[in-house]
Amino acid sequence: MHATRKLWTWLAVICALSFAVLGWVGAQIYLAAPPIPQHIISADGEALFGPGQVDRGQQAWLSAGGQQLGTVWGHGSYVAPDWSADWLHREALALRQIWARRDYGANFDDLNKATQAALNARLKEEMRRNSYDATRATIVLSADRAAAVREVAQHYIDLFGDARSLDKLREQYAMNANSVVDADDLRALPAFVFWSAWAAATDRPGATGLSYTSNWPHEPLIDNRPSAEAGIWSIASVILMIGAIAAMVMAHSAAKEEQDPAPPKADPLFNLKPTPSMLATRKYFFVVIALILAQVGMGVITAHYAVEGHSFFGFPLADVLPFVVSRTIHTQFAVLWIATAWLATGLYIAPAISGHEPRFQKLGVNLLFYALLFIVAGSTAMGWLGSLQHKGTAFAFWLGNQGLEFTSMGRVWQILLFVGLLFWVTLLGRALWPALRKPSDSRGLIVMVFLSALCIGGFYATSLTWGRHSHYSMIEYWRWWLVHLWVEGFFEVFATAVIALLFTRLGLIRAASANNAIVLETIVFLFGGILGTLHHLYFTGTPTFVIAIGAMFSALEVVPLSLIGIEAWRNYQRSKAAPWVGSYRWSILCFIAVGFWNTVGAGLLGFSINTPLALYYMQGLNMTAAHGHAALFGVYGMLGIGLLLFCLRGMSSRLAWSDALLRPMFWCLNIGLAMMVFISLVPAGVYQAWASISTGMWYARSPELIHSPFMETLVWLRVPGDVVFAIGTLFLALFAWRLLVARKQSSAAIADHA
């Protein structure tokens, strides 16, 4: 008990200090973020962009799809370009060409090498000079550069408008004509894109050769290359990771690991009678399976748009289901079905743990279900409607699609979901209360379950921190609080504690050992995970020390994954501990798969892009997608399915249960995911990384490379893996259908007998 109290104290101290540092970093990001000018003018006084146009352009881009339609500073989707890299390259080429034609009467490519070198040196000096006047909030550009900016701005107006000359390019970008309909929004959109490229190219005040985005993206034309900090901290983070892994291996080897207890002779949960509120969670799990099917379907359509752009095997599907909508649903449903599975698991196990069914608990569970269903259906429908009918920026922010990856639902839906999560915590807490008050060997686990649930509910408030007019750097800062800390942090702590609690209830591990292990695991995970959030923010207009902190702590995130295979092996042994454990075989195998994908998806693929130097060249490329698919579904998805199967086992007839359907489900999902990641996404990411390093980020995301024969072949090579994966989801759906039919038949038989 003394050791456990010390661990809890360390956990509290580490969390308090880590969040204090993370909050301080946020304040520094706010102070050091690239300034937003109110006027962008030429040296001869001509206005290029006026007051509020950068802000309005940001809103216009987000309402047109935002991070579902290309990226800015590397965050978003991968078919359309990174707009900051695209603008930067187009502006540099345009300016260089203006000088070549005016001063030498020829195209730049026709000039001799010495003249080209002189113009390149002039270009670098011009593009990197910081001409922002803080007293007037004005950027002053030379007349020549202003002419280049006007040329590129017209290209963007034509692209996001309906110029027929760019139909082919829009198809390659998987974007529809008239992505921005309002004339004022369309004129303002180039102001935001220009500003994002300007911040990526111009030197910070008091610095030479270092832009606001730490020289991201790679653009040799203006000598945008990795900073010294990126290289130094990349090396330091690798050294730290190796040292920390060695220390953990030594500590694990020196520790005397307690053996698991002798398993009970019979299933301890066999005679557990589900309470009314536990039975009410059943429908949650069937909705989870429906959301999985919808998410996979949208994923197939979204992937296919990378080849055809507007069509699905010749059918003009983008007229009713644009890429920005299909990708939004695909990413949003991934988070929603995983979250729903975990929320339902909490509601199911709480009365089972405490032996207490609070008054009106079933009513609360049902109310929460229909509220969540309303939020999912409403946010999806409004996002779809807003995108198709171009309802405007206010509608997009409040009711439609905010244009932010994984956090796309409108603000009204976010508020409702936050209220729903607080209601869920209340339901969970009142059911767990007797167990929280009663001293027991497993009380520490129960406390961890409740505290992590409280953090899940409370930390969703970070989705409410940015507004329509927030600085883009601050939007990214808060968005990653939600995506990294909420999804990758507290949900994982919650799920890990729930799994440990389930194993203790089955008598397969000792409660006292599990208590210490879970608190220690949480300490190790959050020590790296909280400040590791900053690895997403290296190049989003943040101070350079963000690179140092993010690199070192994100390296520590990998450390606990180095020993996760040992835990997976022990779980496999537990699945064979006694004949009755076979009833939970596929749930336990899902937990083992979580260990595998944690090591491969979160660890191997995650760390391959996490160091500053690697991410500098690979941010916004398919290596990120490979890591995202392997980690999101492989870890959190398989965890959700494992919990789903465990809970359904306790609410279903043993005769209706079919391991014959679960076997192909499990193997198809995991084999299909591996095929998708390693046959298609990883090779595509490596190929793009080569292009980014050798030529520049603009080229790695250009239609010339994205739609090259090799890249399109890699997209088609996703098909075998996608098919195998989809078959796995169909087996899961068939399994659920069998349970539903059996329940209806059982109810009918009881009614006939009565």
From TrEMBL:
Q: Which InterPro entries match?
A: Cyt_c_oxase-like_su1_sf, Cyt_C_Oxase_1, NorB_cytochrome_c-like
Q: Where is the Nitric oxide reductase subunit B cytochrome c-like domain?
A: 37-218
Q: Which GO terms describe its biological process?
A: aerobic respiration
What SUPFAM superfamilies is this protein classified in?
Cytochrome c oxidase subunit I-like (SSF81442)
Q: Its Gene Ontology molecular function terms?
A: cytochrome-c oxidase activity; heme binding
**Keyword set, alphabetical order:** Membrane, Transmembrane, Transmembrane helix
Q: Which domain of life is it from?
A: Bacteria
CC per GO annotation: membrane
User: Transmembrane ranges?
Assistant: 230-251, 284-307, 329-351, 363-385, 412-433, 445-463, 483-506, 518-539, 545-566, 586-609, 629-648, 669-690, 723-741
Name under which the protein is recorded? Nitric-oxide reductase large subunit
